[in-house]
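LAB NOTEBOOK - FOLDING QUEUE
OPERATOR: T.R.
BATCH SIZE: 2
PURPOSE: Compare the predicted structure-token outputs for two unrelated chains run back to back under identical settings.
PRIORITY: normal
REVIEWER: second-year student, initials M.K.

ITEM 1
FIELD SEQUENCE / FIELD STRUCTURE:
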Amino acid sequence: MSQDDKLLEKRLILGVLSLGVGFFGANIALFNWIERTGLNYLLANCARYVCAYGGFGAMIFGAMLVNDFIVRRQFLKNKHSRSELTMFVDVTKKKATQSNVNRRRRRKVSKTV
């Protein structure tokens, strides 16, 4: 098992756990289970808001990790080399810089006319 596979496993596990905790926290806030869980004693009147925002934040973070797992697994499954990925990034940067140069040239020409 390579280092990439271990990293993917960790991201998947952390993402699923984060999603689960987020759903649990959001359900506590949404269905007003705060009194039953004893969170009123710990967080007072802010307990519902802390659970809601914390739960939604955890769900977003977990979904991002699971999405990263899915994308990287497909990338590694297709046996793309890292040089292909960096080459793609370099090509897009070159296109961006060429378009910026062309824009500047057009501005200079329009200012002189």
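ITEM 2
FIELD SEQUENCE / FIELD STRUCTURE:
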Amino acid sequence: MTHVRRGDRRAAVRAASFDCPRSTFLWILPLFISALLVVGCASTPPAASPSLYAPYLLSRDGVLRYRVPTGWFPANTDSTEPEKLVFLVRNDYGGSLTVHEVHLDDNARSHLAEGGLLPLAQLTASLEAGSKSGIISSGPTVVRLNGKEMCSYEMEFRQNGDRMRVVIVDAGGHVYSVAALVNGSVGARAAGEIMTAQQAFVATLKW
């Protein structure tokens, strides 16, 4: 590597200033700045959407098509839990995404047709809280994603500090819950990334 002393640098700058006419220097300067900006932008490409380049996979029931967010992997190869139609785990094991079907009888389907997803989400949240010793910390509320009406609610589990956000999705003849579980040991940044991955997952669902 060649080392240039401070005095040599100053001499080189002075020489360049004398050799280059002022008009030429003012004309070249904007081009030089533009080149630096192009090089800087090229070295830091924009981050891709969590599911932009992932291929579509098929859920266990053959109804949903989904994409695995970047930084996650499918983990539902074990046939002992067939109720988990989709089960994804974050690479650092700080969170998971699980899809279950919400099974409806004729009465529940009638209520769904009349009142939408909100009453169903309220019932699902109550049952979830009772069965898992959690408390409902937010919702259920109606949300719209890509023009589709859904419902979401959040829960906290004080025993271990875990948090969960559930999105209820009406896929025509089927209703699904998409649960994002955040491990209580992860920080706020990772928790936000897990919720963002859930949103990207739900936004790209097809049926």
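REVIEWER COMMENT (ITEM 2): The CA atoms of residues 164 and 181 lie 4 Å apart.
FOLLOW-UP: none requested
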